[in-house]
Each structure stands twice: as C-alpha cells, then as structure tokens.
Amino acid sequence: MRVKSSEYKKCNMKIWNEVAPRYHKRWATVSKGPFQSTQKLISSLQIKKGDHVLDVASGTGVVTKLLKQKVGKTGYVIGADTSTSAIKIAKKWNDKSQNLLFVNADAENFSFKEKFDIITCQYALFFFPNSQKALKNMRNSLKKEGVLGISVHGHPDRVPYFDSIFKAVTKFIPNYIPPGTPDFDRFGTKKQLKNEIKKAGFSKIKVNDYDFPYSPGTFEQYWKNYLRYVAKPIKEKLNKLSKSQRKELKDTVRGETRSYTKRDGTIQFPWEVLILTAKY
Q1: 3-state DSSP call for residue 95?
Q2: Which residues does 170 contact at the CB level (< 8 Å), separation at least 6?
Q3: Strand order in the sheet with 100-104
Q4: Percent of the residues in the chain that have a pLDDT greater than 90, as a whole number
Q5: How confident is the prediction for the chain on average, in pLDDT?
Q6: In the chain, what are the domain boundaries?
Q7: Residue 276, CB-side half-sphere exposure with 13 Å CA sphere
Q8: Per-residue pLDDT for 240 more than 80?
Q9: What confidence category does residue 2 fall into, taking pLDDT thresholds of 50, 70 and 90?
C-alpha cells in the first residue's frame, strides 16, 4: 500500500521534529562533508546588499545564517520550514534580527505578498512529494530575473555514505522506506535535476557537481553513529530484528564500506553534491 502525500508529510514532519537537534549538532554546525557545499551555493548566487531572500526548507538555519550576512542590514531573509523543532533551533542559532524571519510553511503551499530577489533550497527538493508544485511555487515568488539556488545530493553510487547502509538494510527490512515515499536520489544526476527545474518554467539553468569527501571514522564509529542518530520509526524496525539478523546486517554493511576503508581503518567516502542556479 502506497503512502498518501498528506500521510507522508505528517510522518516526515514528526521525524524531523525528533531528529532536528541531533541533525543540527552533527551536520549543520560543521563545515564537513556535504555541508562544505553551503558556501558554494551562496557564492554561486551573487547576492547583493539589500537583496530580499527566501530560504525554502531552511531547517536549523545553516543557509539563512550566511544569507543574512550577505544581504546586510538593508536586506531581508525569510527561512521557511515545516518542522517547528528545526525553526526553534534556527531562531536560537541565528540570534534575533530585524531583517531575519523564520516561518512555519510548506514548500508546496506557501504564499508571500512580496516577491524575492533570490530563493534557496538546500538538501530538500527530493523530500517534496510534489516537487513541481513546490518549484512553481518558488518561481511565482521570485521577481522577474530573480534567481533560484538549489543543492541536492548526487547519484547513490557517488554518495556511498547513505547507500552503504540503505542497500544492506533493505535486504533485511523490505518496508524500511514506506511505499510511495519520494526517492531520495530522484534528482541525483545533472540531467534529472536540470530537467525538473526546466519543467517548472525556469531558464538559464546551470548545474555544477562537486565532491566533498567525508570520513565518518572507523567502521565501528560509522555503525554506532547510524544506530544512534537514526529516526525512531526506523530504529523500531531495526530493534525487531533477531540478534543473528542484526549481526548479519552489520557484516553486510561492513562489506559495502570495505572499498572505501583505508589502511589505518578509517573510512573515506566520496560525497557528490549538485548545485544548480536558474532564473525566473
């Protein structure tokens, strides 16, 4: 049975409200691995002092923090996200400011009176059930000649940090990801991403790919962190496995990481990120 869009959103919001604090501490506050791309995204947009910017799916505020610095006191930044927990963290991390506002809003349904010079969306497009509705919503919120900036993870083969575990776990837990859940890698190639943005009516589309290597430490550290940080619904499914199944699963994941393991025992994963810019 495929999950309905409304049910998926409700479930996803619950998960993000739970994991936001851990996500912020582990990823958003450090410039390692994929989050080295934040600076690349910002620099690709040529933001000017006084610009009005909307950050869609702003999460815990990693992008908004840099946007606010770029637009200066004469500019304005709005961060929009569905997770109340993430917004709470973002507000605290970014400090209060007259030119920064965080709002609880759905990417597919938000509406603002004003038009923006720039709209950003980092690591979220693949989460939207109706990505076209979200993109057209963003386009309609841009000024003429306004700029869109998007970051997504690359092809699974080039982001083995996720795939090494996903490939293994789905063998033991077929319903690990509910049917109907948007594919995490559906925009993982330049062609896929460009075509999706073009379909939404954008032009002058440019896509660059980058590799931001990331080391999660040794295999034991990688595995323990996965079990520690995984969302509660998935953890419950893992806990239903027998002791022998859990051991077999761990060994399977270890096998997936072997080609990325160095002589000293640490893992070094490649991490492809696609960064797109387009105009209204």
Answers
A1: coil
A2: 176, 177
A3: 100-104, 76-81, 52-56, 116-122, 142-153, 272-279, 203-211
A4: 77
A5: 93
A6: 5-156+182-215+271-279
A7: 30
A8: yes
A9: low
Report d(CA 261, CA 218) in Å as an integer.
8
Q: What is the 3-state secondary structure (H, E, C) of 106-143?
A: CCCCCCCCCCEEEEEEECCHHHCCCHHHHHHHHHHCEE
State the greatest distance between any 2 C-alpha atoms of the chain, in Å, as a whole number.
61
Q: Which tokens hold the place of 129? A: 């059930």
What CA–CA distance (Å, rounded) separates 219 from 253? 9
Pairwise CA distance, residues 161 & 260, whole Å = 10
Can you give the pLDDT at residue 1?
46
Q: Which residue has the tokens 């770029």?
A: 70
Q: Residue 112 burial (CB < 10 Å; 0-12/13-18/19+)?
A: middle
The stretch 100-114 carries a mean pLDDT of 94
Element (H, E) at 101: strand 100-104
- Which CATH number fits the domain 5-156+182-215+271-279, given the four candidates 1.10.510.10, 3.40.50.150, 3.90.1150.10, 3.40.920.10? 3.40.50.150
Residue pointed to by tokens 């991490």: 271
- pLDDT of the residue at 10: 83
Instruction: Based on DSSP, count helices (H) and strands (E) in the chain, helices before strands.
Output: 10, 9
Tens of pLDDT, residues 164-217: 999 899 999 988 887 778 888 899 999 999 999 999 999 999 999 999 999 999
Tens digits of per-residue pLDDT, 30-87? 778 888 999 999 999 999 999 999 999 999 999 999 999 999 999 999 999 999 999 9
- Please tell me what DSSP assigns to residue 57: T
Sequence-distant (≥ 6) Cβ neighbours of residue 182 within 8 angstroms: 8, 126, 127, 128, 129, 131
Q: Does pTM top 0.90 for this prediction?
A: yes
